Amino acid sequence: MVNLKIGQLSLPGRVILAPMSGVTNSLFRRIAKRYGAALVFTEAISAEGLIRGNPRTLLMLKFQEEERPIGIQLLGSGPEAMAQAAQIVARFKPDLIDLNFGCPARKVTRKGAGAALLKDFDLCKRIIERVTKVSSFPITLKMRTGWNSNSIVALQLAKLAEDYGIKGIIIHGRTASQRFSGEANWEIIARVKEEVSIPVIGNGDVNTPERAQKMILTTGCDGVMIGRGALGNPWIFTQIQAHLNGETLPQPPSLREKLELCLQHYRMALEEMGEFKAVREMRKHIAWYTKGFPQSASLKRKVYEMESSAEVMEKLMLYGKHIIQERSNGIG
């Protein structure tokens, strides 16, 4: 097995969970770890929110030991703010800190953060320089290839990042203006890998074991990051790692297995969030766990109308029994 090392941090594999807003909370991260993610990340955390001591922002820093190795991702547009935030993060002792230079969401870029930083190379340099100076943890950088097709800066920024002490580059093969449309440009990932000696992790259009292996063979990247491909499908981490190791692929999860995990996820959410928040948090996860199965669209509509966790869980169990019975009778 070929594993991945970022600075002095050795990972148990090469398949990594991407930071995703509104998704990669502690519950989701723990499930990803149990199913083979070698490294997980928090959602992007606002540097300004940390400095102001915003309770909700500070709560996002908390994690459990079983989530290690874990990276905390920082989002901001000012060198001093990002440096101060990194010092706050250090108190929580993560395994690494990641700088978000890649989020294309308008609510982020209109504040000059995320992928908007790619339009100001000098500002990128000053943020990297300040954060690496104040942190004793490995610092990684997650970015897009550029702001748009006329301003591809990935290669230049990766080389600068390495010069200023960044220990790993995570590159999504799309520009910010593409958001999640079109195809990811793996050729740029390959060029970055050729030019830097620090680990390069590829991201974009990796949703199967075969695609993961193709990205590594095509680009030479050291690891792959999975975002949308893990929604409702944490099995993808084990499957990809097995494929990379030349092992027999585990069978894809059945509807029964997906529903069992969904219900387990639901119970964990109830215990940690309380009913009101858990019912709303789990609606999207139910849609992801059941995507592609018969009558899942109808199930989603009904679940989104329900306010009681008991009602939702009963609906899930009845749905599973109905679909499994139909299949055993040769229907659908």
Short description:
By secondary structure, the chain is of the alpha/beta class.
How would you explain this protein's 3D organization?
There is one protein chain. The protein is an alpha/beta fold and 332 residues long. It is built from 14 helices and 11 strands. It folds into 2 domains: 4-244, TIM Barrel; 255-328, Non-ribosomal Peptide Synthetase Peptidyl Carrier Protein, Chain A (Orthogonal Bundle). Strands 3, 4, 5, 6, 7, 8, 9, 10 and 11 form a 9-stranded parallel beta sheet that branches. The longest helix is centred in the last third of the chain and has 20 residues, at 309-328.
Layout of strands and helices, then pairs:
Blueprint: E1 4-6, E2 9-11, E3 15-17, H1 26-34, E4 40-41, E5 45-46, H2 47-52, H3 55-59, E6 70-75, H4 79-90, E7 96-101, H5 106-109, H6 121-134, E8 139-144, H7 154-163, E9 168-172, H8 186-195, E10 200-203, H9 209-219, E11 223-226, H10 235-244, H11 255-273, H12 275-290, H13 296-305, H14 309-328
Parallel strand pairs: 3-11, 4-6, 5-6, 6-7, 7-8, 8-9, 9-10, 10-11
Antiparallel strand pairs: 1-2
